[in-house]
Each structure stands twice: as C-alpha cells, then as structure tokens.
C-alpha cells in the first residue's frame, strides 16, 4: 500500500511540473491530386509579338524551362525556373493558388525587366525561394547562368535578394555573397530555410561539385560564412544512379535538401532548433543544431570542425531532392526511385517513423519541392528532372505537375516561439505548491 501511495505522489509531482504541450495528433491526409500540369511552360507575354521575338532569337526555348521551386503567399504560388540551359525568359514567376486553368501561363515576378538575363540588378538564376513569417521573400540567385551548357556565364555574383511582399512595392534588396564565403564560379545555391530569431538567419545548401557546404547568412548585419562536412554533405557512389519511369540517370550531386525543425529548450535552457539536410545522391538524413551553424568560428576551422556535431539519423528507401517541415515538426520529403511522397514525425525515431503518404509511378516522377498554404494544404512540384538533364524533354507529353493534399499543415516559419524559463511570478508558482501540499496532506492521512 505504501509503495502505491508513493508512486501516486511521484506521478502527481510529475504532472504538476510537466509544462510541455502534447504534440497534436497527425492529421488524416487527403489523397494528393493534380491541380496544375504542363507539357511546356509558357508565360504571360506583354504581346504576341514579344513571344514571337523571344522564340525567334532563342531567348525562349519551351523545352528548356523547368519548374523547380515553389512557395506560397497571399493568393499566389511562386515558382522558380533555374536557368540551367539557355532560353529561359523568366526565372521567378507566379500563378494563382485558386485553380482556374489547369495549365496557367506564368507571370514573371516581380516583372519582366526584373528577370532580364545579363542585367546583374535583375534576377539571373533562381533555384529556390523562402517566405518568412513576416512576409519577406528570400531569393537564392546563383548569378551564374547556363550551368548545364558548355560555357556557363558567371557575369553576375551569387546573391541573396530580399523582397517585402507585405508592402506590395516588390522592391528588391540584393546582397551579393563575398568571395571569402563562396566561389562564384563553382557555387550552386540550391535550397534554404529561414530562422526568424536573433536578427533573422538563413541556412543555405551549396551543392557545389568541388566545395559543398551550408552557408549561413545573418540578415541583421548581412554577414555570411560557410561550414563544411565532407562525410555528410558529399554524394556517395552507391546512390548516384537514379531509375525513374524506365529512365536511368547518373547524378553525383552533393548536399541538396534542407529543413528546419521546431524550437525547443536545450538542457541548459537555451532555445535551439534542428537543421535537417541530405545530399541528393545519398540515402541518409542528417541533423545538426542551428546553434552550431551560427557559430562563425567553426567556419574558420575548416573540414572536420562540424563532424562532432553532425547526427546521422538513418537511411531512407531512396534518394531525396527537396523536403520541407511543417510547424509541428513533420517532415515531408520524396523518395525519388520509389515514386513516393513520404512524411516523418520528427518526435519519433527516424528508423521507424517514416510513412508513405502517396505512391504513383505515373504521376509522382521526381518529387522536387514542397510548400504549405494558409488553409492546411500541402503542394509538391513534380518535374521529371531525369528527362531534363538528359535533354529528353518532349513537349508532347506532361512534364511538370503540381499536386495538392489537405494535410492540416502550415509552414515551419509559423511554428511556436519558445522562450527560456524565467523566475515564476508569485501567483504562478502558487498552484504547484498548493497541489503538492494537498498530495502530502493525503499521504499523511493514509499513514496515520
């Protein structure tokens, strides 16, 4: 009897002191369905004559325009078209969220002139964008164009470009990366996440073939640095071959996808977050604390400095390109070789927590990027990249799709802000004290 009472006391005390909110149950997913699809990408031209002029001068080559990135804000989906080949007239554009046409023409954003090739004040090569909780669009502009051609043009520097979407003026603030952070001739700014804490940080994957790493950019003082870990950020030979829909392609691509987990308190009561990443040509998912990436001194120490802090979470069934985490810590990612969209609740061990939520070899052919809207919907870009890199795109068949499912999710940028515990106020501290007093009183009565 005494043992049972003591157990009750311990349980009551734990209940009084446990302030961690329970993680909400996983929502029941709708089936992913196609909302947009294109054989080839076309644009809202100023006039039919403009379109004809672009076609005649090879400034617009339809089969060379590939959709890669996607993001949501307001009434629009923002799409990126990286200029890996010639003939891509705009590298950032919008389409409406609400479906009116299954193959809408894209509206260059912010404008046609802001997408002019060769104008280093305009957008040159946008692989991905992120939109933070304050309505700021963060644009990765590689600068160098024609990365899949014989003679890439490095005229313009790689930059972060910021646009305040809330203002509606769409003015671009361009911050070029300094030469001591990256090599403009070899860098490939692939994807990013934004951490709206302590002056706003971006964590960016650079899947450079010769110098892969994670670039950290701090908006408050526009400073950046790069961290490297060859073991976790480099492609591995047994994962460079991709087999999709009967096509085989060899792509030894380094660090690629990146995601940012929810805020949490460390053992020493500091706020931190997990940064998740993986090479495209790898079966592993890795994690590192954001606080480690923010440590600029580690960037000066070179290769090996990050190694003690990198966690190998385990393997996936296939390779992953883009991935994104929601505000509750659920990671959405693709398994390219299996034609699968998957998810993982990051509060569960990665080895057992992965779950297939969609599989279709006809419609899910190379999962690229994800985004969430403000109504609980998840969107994913399917772009058949394997055909694009082999120059086998046929405009007589569907090459690009956007799928949508109601998952109940919202973006990680809207995750709960966690604050370190402070000295409790007298009134706040009284409740647990009274609760424990009642427990002790009951215990004394039973033992009397």
From TrEMBL:
Gene Ontology, cellular component aspect: extracellular region
Localization (cell): Secreted
UniProt-listed InterPro entries: 6-blade_b-propeller_TolB-like, MRJP/yellow-related
Coiled coil regions in record: none
Family membership noted in the UniProt record: Belongs to the major royal jelly protein family.
PANTHER family: PROTEIN YELLOW-LIKE PROTEIN, PROTEIN YELLOW-RELATED
Protein name: Yellow-x
UniProt organism field: Manduca sexta
Phylogenetic placement of the source organism: Eukaryota, Metazoa, Ecdysozoa, Arthropoda, Hexapoda
